[in-house]
Amino acid sequence: DVVMTQTPVSLSLAIGQPASISCKSSQSLLGTSGKTFLNWILQRPGQSPKRLIYQVSKLYSEVPDRFSGSGSETEFTLKISRVEAEDLGVYYCWQGTHFPDTFGAGTKLELK
Amino acid sequence: EVQLVESGGGLVQPGRSLKLSCVASGFTFNNYWMTWIRQAPGKGLEWVASITNTGGSTYYPDSVKGRFTISRDNAKSTLYLQMNSLRSEDTATYYCTRGGYWGQGVMVTVSS
Fold it and tell me: A42, A57, B2, B41: which one has the fewest Cβ atoms less than 10 Å from its Cβ?
C-alpha cells in the first residue's frame, strides 16, 4: 500500500498567520490517466471530515480561496494564506491513485 | 444538496454481527461508486470497502476481507455494510462517503 507521510504532526499558529502542511507519498501518485488523485480534507473537532482540495490543487466550490494545494509525483503541500478560527482541526492528505486508498496520519492545527 | 445519513451502529460483543446503512440523497445514487471509511477513537482514517455504481464489483482491504460485505440498493439509494465476526479492533466511527462527501458517521463499539 502507498504510505502517506504528513509533516508536521501539529501546528500552533495565531489568526492571520500562514500555514503550510507537507504530504509525501511512498510512490508517485501520477496515474495512468495523467491525473494525480491527491486530496486534502479537514476534520474539525467533533465533526466528520470535510472536503477541501482534489487532484492536488483544485478547490471545491465551498472552500475559501485562502486555501491552496500544490505538488506533483510524491511531494505535496497544503497552504493557508491567513489562518482563521474556523480552520482549526486535523488536516489529512489522501491518495486515490493506487488501490487501496490511503491516508496520511493527520496534521493538527491549533490556534495560538 | 448531497446528504449521506448513516445508521445501525451500537455496542456489540466480539464475534457478533452488525449491519450499517447509509441513505443517500441530493444526487443520482446509481451513478457513483460508494465507499465506507472508518476512524478508530483518537486515530486516523482507514478505507474499509468500496462498491461500483452498479454493485457489480466490491473491494476490501485485507483487514476486513472475508468478514465485511458492502452492498447497495440503488432503488432505495441506500448503501450497506454487513460486518460479521467483529473484533475489538473494529471499534470505530464508520463513515459513508462519495467522492469527497462524508456522512456524519456512526459509532460501532465491539466489546464484551
Answer: B41
